[in-house]
Q: What sequence folds into this?
């Protein structure tokens, strides 16, 4: 199991506000600003696969949610008293019932829904999709409570649980539905081609450059008013900010270094909000030296989270003592005895771990950008207590492959906490 430390990231998002039309005192017949039907966005990585059941990073999954849909989706809503509740809204299903013993969910599939190839969605597609998800390691965490899935007619599907499981609809929100006929016909090509029921279909891909979505005219909720969405691949934060300020992009997550400049401009509409995301340092505990719990604890005490916040993110986040941010994710709590910045204790634990004179490790792997700045602060923190290492900047998909294969000692990554969690001690 990979252990974690790091700080909660407050992501900032800005977008240009396009205003059309003339004022009350405008002359009759004055030219109106054209109404745009396109949107230009950016992503920091090349999407490794379009397989909704594959091991894909979060930006790819969010992109695919424009193409594929679940039966129900979870939506967080704020009540009048300021508390947040989780509601579930029907998407591909119109309604559902739960058996008296809580183990069978019967979903009634919406009629007239078409896949992008023109074929109507049937309950058999839902059964097929869920069984794919049950077999895939990448989506198995959402289906572990499921014993079986059975389409009882063209528009009804029973999902049988192993036992009552109250968060089941939250899992349903993450399981996307594919066309059985399309997958069976195309096989492994589903990682490169798509066929969903969503408001957009994939119309163009230029690898490492851009992805273009086009509005699906037969979408069951009506054709989307935004006809094309172009997502450009821009890994470098500085290049991203320049592209936005030049008008090439309509909306971005603002790099911390550019937040002050962009948010202070009257030209843009800017928002700052807290996401359920934690930036973390992952240990490879499957091999030396970080199979040693005392060494992992030493690293935790060596890291100055406040310095990371200031140096790497210009203070646009707050330090975290736990992977789940309190007040953002329901049920999250702060640990009773969080790690603090204590170099002296780190050196003591380092000696107890068998390294009284310190040690050298291979590297901290990082995807670059702000994450690399974070790695640089950690590198210095570790050097201060006697742990030396390099920083290895990798393309994001190459980095993920290194993590999957266990080819690392330490590495930075981001974790979105969208589900329930378990507390695991170091």
A:
């Amino acid at each position: 199991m990979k252990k974690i430390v790091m700080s909660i990231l407050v992501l900032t998002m800005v977008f240009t506000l396009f205003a059309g039309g003339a004022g009350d005192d405008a002359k009759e017949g004055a030219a109106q600003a054209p109404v745009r039907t396109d949107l230009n966005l950016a992503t920091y990585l090349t999407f490794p696969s379009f397989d909704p059941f594959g091991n894909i990073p979060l930006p790819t999954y969010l992109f695919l949610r424009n193409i594929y849909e679940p039966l129900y989706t979870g939506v967080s809503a704020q009540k009048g008293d300021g508390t947040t509740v989780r509601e579930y809204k029907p998407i591909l299903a119109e309604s559902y019932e739960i058996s008296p013993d809580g183990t069978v969910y019967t979903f009634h599939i919406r009629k007239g829904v078409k896949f992008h190839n023109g074929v109507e969605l049937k309950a058999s597609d839902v059964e097929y999709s869920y069984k794919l998800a049950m077999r895939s390691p990448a989506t198995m965490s959402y289906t572990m409570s499921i014993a079986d899935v059975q389409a009882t007619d063209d528009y009804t599907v029973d999902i049988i649980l192993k036992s009552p499981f109250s968060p089941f609809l939250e899992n349903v929100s993450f399981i996307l539905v594919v066309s059985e006929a399309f997958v069976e016909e195309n096989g492994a090509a589903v990682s490169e081609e798509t066929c969903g029921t969503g408001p957009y279909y994939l119309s163009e891909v230029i690898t490492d450059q851009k992805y273009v979505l086009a509005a699906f005219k037969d979408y069951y909720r009506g054709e989307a008013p935004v006809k094309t969405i172009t997502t450009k691949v821009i890994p470098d934060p500085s290049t991203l900010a320049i592209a936005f300020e030049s008008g090439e992009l309509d909306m971005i997550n603002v790099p911390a270094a550019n937040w002050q400049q962009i948010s202070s401009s009257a030209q843009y509409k800017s928002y700052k909000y807290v996401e359920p995301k934690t930036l973390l340092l992952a240990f490879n505990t499957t091999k030396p030296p970080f199979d040693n719990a005392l060494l992992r604890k030493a690293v935790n005490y060596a890291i100055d989270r406040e310095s990371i916040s200031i140096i790497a993110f210009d203070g646009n986040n707050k330090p975290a003592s736990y992977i789940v941010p309190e007040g953002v994710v329901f049920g999250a709590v702060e640990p009773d005895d969080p790690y603090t910045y204590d170099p002296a204790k780190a050196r003591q634990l380092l000696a107890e771990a068998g390294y009284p004179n310190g040690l050298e490790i291979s590297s901290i792997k990082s995807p670059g950008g702000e994450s690399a700045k974070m790695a640089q602060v950690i590198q210095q923190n570790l050097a201060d207590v006697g742990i030396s290492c390099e920083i290895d900047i990798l393309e994001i998909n190459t980095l993920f492959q290194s993590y999957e294969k266990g080819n690392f000692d330490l590495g930075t990554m981001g974790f979105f906490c969208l589900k329930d969690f378990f507390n695991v001690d170091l």
Remarks:
- Confidence is low (pLDDT under 50) at residues 1-30, 419-426.
- The two ends are 10 Å apart (CA to CA).
